[in-house]
């Protein structure tokens, strides 16, 4: 399948050459993935591939095949101008495939529980060696066993059960109702060993590839345990096939700990984990391979009586909200077009794996951790009443951790793919029975990104917003010992001296041949595009030169400080001295300047666009961290 995509992206062969090469490629694909049915333009094609004469016909016929369940992949426009006709065809097909209607707010918000700690086990030799390096052992670490499996779950009471791929704690029942993975609760300073056991079906039907590698998004980890997207020469195996296990080591130590200068301001409040297989992250995550991790410490303790006294405990007044969008067929199965290069959009909004759920709240403060887990959709989030009037809240964190101080009385925030924002809202002034909504006001009609730009995205009019989930205020007045203090996790902005001493990395995100490239190159994980030195500061400039497409850029291993956006001081939500980030939204034409420092670990890692279809269609590159 990688070769098939590469053929389209290069887009250099004439029609006869493409037909010949495509047939040969499809033979190889059929041998590698015998359960996968592919529909291709320009024929005749080999069995079981249907043929058609033009991309326009493939749009019509391909839609019918998807609806009938006779095709898993639809490849429209296997010819020289795929970037025009093929891309148009996928957009038309996506619009033609509509989910059946569902009544909103029928089911309660799912809250996947934490996994149970396992008895210490002997991990892999690589894990044992790394535990020795970080000074950990079975007496001071936590162990977990997680199964990757196919399961049937309910996305909505009015739909049949949906087959999903998911992460499940081995101690949870096999008929566990959750699509989302278990909610890990980790304490800063306590190493974690997580054994992931790939038990996905090797003969599966539908989109996705059952080979997995788990990325601990936002984690300060050794690159070997970071979910590298493919096996490469010189490194032990990182990709697990069905029946194989992999032991991940998460030190949960402050950056700089191996060098004797740990930085306690570099602590994330919430992270997430998801599949990261090269070329197939999009379909694998879309099928369900994602979950969140909550990180507590002596400041952000999870208790309303210690530390900052933020709302808690987890699952009661501290609530993760993972936003995703999906398209669902009448039989309950999820619909996905992997070859939509722009980015695939769903027409159903899900939170924690449920379509339009509701959540009952008491009259007090709540902490909501909003993660954008969608493949290509961005959100402009507000809390509204039934007439679309926005309500105030305090923003306290990004995916880079707690802010230096809260941003008070905000009424909206933009959250791009893989970004997350945490806010605290006080329901004490709302009468019992009041209904409020988590609403999306962003105008976005295609995977290329929202209308408008990062600083001024186009908004839907009041009354046209998408109500994603409902809050129902219950009961009378209650005691509330929680608070949002004026100081959260303060840190010093980067000095001019540090900036002057930094190396400079320049990266351009661009469109090429109908696909996506960085610095005019498609992904090649066998060779580094960027080289950095451990502990050496880096000014990393990201420039979006792809036109009107948005690219939420993510650099693995370390958080970033945003110094400048388009030559100006950034907004407070991403400004150095207030916030730290590990995902940077690049709207069309944006240039953002970051400060980064890669501490403690060396080895190959990656950076990429987190629109997962852009990532899968080659907008990824390797960078190597070299010893200082």
Features of this protein?
mainly beta, disordered N terminus, 628 residues, 8 helices
Describe this entry's structure for a reader:
- By secondary structure, the chain is mainly β.
- 13% of the residues lie in helices and 32% in strands.
- Strands 11, 12, 13, 14, 16, 19, 20 and 22 form an eight-stranded mixed sheet that branches. Strands 15, 17, 18, 21, 23 and 24 form a six-stranded mixed sheet that branches.
- α3 packs parallel to α4.
- The radius of gyration is 23 Å and the shape is globular.
- The two termini are 39 Å apart.
Topology (SSEs and partners):
Layout: H1 2-10, H2 15-32, E1 38-40, H3 55-68, E2 73-75, H4 82-96, H5 125-133, E3 142-153, E4 162-169, E5 184-187, E6 192-198, E7 214-217, E8 245-250, E9 270-275, H6 281-286, E10 290-296, E11 318-328, E12 334-335, E13 348-351, E14 354-355, E15 358-363, E16 365-372, E17 379-384, E18 390-391, E19 393-398, E20 401-410, E21 413-415, E22 420-426, E23 435-440, E24 466-477, H7 496-500, E25 503-512, E26 515-518, E27 530-533, E28 538-544, E29 551-555, E30 561-565, E31 583-586, E32 591-596, E33 603-609, H8 612-616, E34 620-626
Parallel strand pairs: 1-2, 3-6, 5-10, 11-16, 15-24, 25-28, 27-34
Antiparallel strand pairs: 3-4, 6-8, 7-9, 9-10, 11-12, 11-13, 13-14, 16-22, 17-18, 17-21, 17-23, 19-20, 19-22, 23-24, 25-26, 28-32, 29-31, 29-33, 30-32, 33-34
Helix pairs in contact: 3-4
Can you summarize this structure?
The chain is mainly beta and 628 residues long. It has eight helices and 34 strands.
Q: What is the overall silhouette?
A: globular
User: How many strand segments?
Assistant: 34
User: Strand fraction band?
Assistant: 25-35%
Helix/strand class: mainly beta
Helical proportion, percent range:
10-25%
Largest sheet: 8 strands, mixed
* Stretches with pLDDT under 50, minimum 5 residues: 1-23, 25-63, 69-90
Distance between the termini: 39 Å
Number of continuous helical runs: 8
What's the average pLDDT? 87
């Amino acid at each position: 399948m990688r070769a098939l995509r590469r053929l389209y992206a290069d887009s250099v062969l004439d029609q006869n050459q493409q037909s010949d090469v495509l047939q040969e490629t499809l033979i190889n694909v059929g041998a590698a993935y015998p359960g996968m049915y592919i529909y291709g333009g320009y024929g005749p094609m080999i069995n079981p591939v249907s043929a058609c004469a033009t991309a326009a016909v493939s749009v019509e016929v391909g839609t019918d095949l998807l609806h009938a369940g006779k095709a898993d992949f639809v490849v429209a426009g296997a010819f020289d101008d795929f970037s025009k006709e093929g891309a148009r065809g996928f957009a038309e097909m996506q619009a033609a495939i509509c989910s059946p209607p569902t009544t909103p707010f029928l089911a309660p918000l799912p809250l996947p529980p934490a996994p149970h700690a396992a008895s210490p086990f002997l991990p892999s030799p690589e894990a044992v060696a790394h535990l020795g390096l970080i000074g950990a052992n079975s007496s001071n670490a936590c162990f977990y066993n997680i199964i990757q499996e196919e399961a049937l779950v309910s996305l909505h009471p009015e739909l049949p059960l949906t087959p999903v791929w998911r992460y499940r704690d081995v101690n949870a029942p096999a008929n566990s109702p959750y699509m989302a993975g278990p909610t890990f609760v980790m304490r800063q300073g306590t190493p974690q060993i997580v054994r992931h056991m790939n038990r996905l079906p090797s003969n599966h039907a539908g989109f996705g590839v059952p080979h997995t590698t788990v990325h601990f998004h936002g984690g300060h980890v050794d690159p070997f345990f970071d979910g590298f997207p493919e096996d490469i020469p010189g490194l032990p195996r990182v990709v697990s096939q069905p029946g194989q296990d992999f032991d991940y080591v998460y030190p949960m130590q402050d950056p700089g700990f191996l060098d004797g200068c740990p930085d306690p301001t570099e602590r994330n409040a919430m992270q997430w984990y998801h599949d990261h297989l090269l070329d197939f992250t999009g379909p694998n995550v879309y099928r369900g391979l994602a979950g969140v991790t909550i990180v507590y410490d002596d400041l952000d303790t999870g208790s309303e009586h210690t530390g900052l006294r933020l709302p808690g405990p987890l699952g009661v007044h501290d609530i993760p909200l993972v936003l995703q969008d999906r398209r669902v067929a009448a039989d309950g199965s999820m619909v996905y077009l992997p070859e939509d290069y722009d980015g695939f959009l769903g027409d159903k909004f899900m939170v924690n794996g449920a379509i339009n759920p509701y959540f009952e709240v008491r009259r007090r403060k709540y902490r909501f951790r909003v993660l954008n887990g969608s493949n290509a959709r961005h959100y402009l989030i507000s809390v509204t009443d039934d007439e679309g009037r926005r309500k105030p809240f305090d923003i306290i964190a990004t995916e880079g951790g707690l802010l230096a101080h809260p941003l008070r009385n905000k009424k909206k925030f933009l959250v791009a793919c893989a970004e997350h924002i945490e806010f605290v809202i006080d329901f004490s002034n709302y009468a019992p029975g009041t209904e409020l909504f988590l609403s999306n006001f962003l105008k976005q009609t295609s995977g290329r990104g929202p209308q408008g730009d990062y600083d001024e995205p186009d908004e839907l009019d009041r009354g046209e917003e998408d109500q994603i989930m409902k809050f129902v205020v219950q009961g009378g007045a209650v005691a509330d010992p929680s608070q949002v203090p004026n100081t959260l996790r303060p840190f010093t902005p980067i000095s001019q001296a540090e900036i002057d001493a930094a190396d400079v990395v320049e990266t351009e995100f661009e469109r090429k041949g109908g696909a996506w490239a960085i610095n005019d190159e498609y992904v090649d994980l066998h060779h580094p595009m960027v080289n950095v030195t451990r502990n050496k500061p880096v000014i990393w400039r990201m420039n979006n030169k792809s036109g009107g497409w948005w690219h939420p850029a993510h650099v693995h291993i370390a958080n970033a400080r945003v110094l400048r956006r388009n030559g100006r001081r950034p907004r407070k939500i991403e400004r150095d001295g207030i916030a730290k980030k590990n995902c940077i939204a690049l709207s069309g034409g944006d240039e953002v300047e970051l400060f980064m420092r890669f501490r403690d670990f060396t080895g190959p890692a990656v950076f990429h666009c987190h629109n997962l279809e852009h990532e899968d269609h080659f907008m990824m590159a390797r960078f190597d961290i070299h010893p200082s």
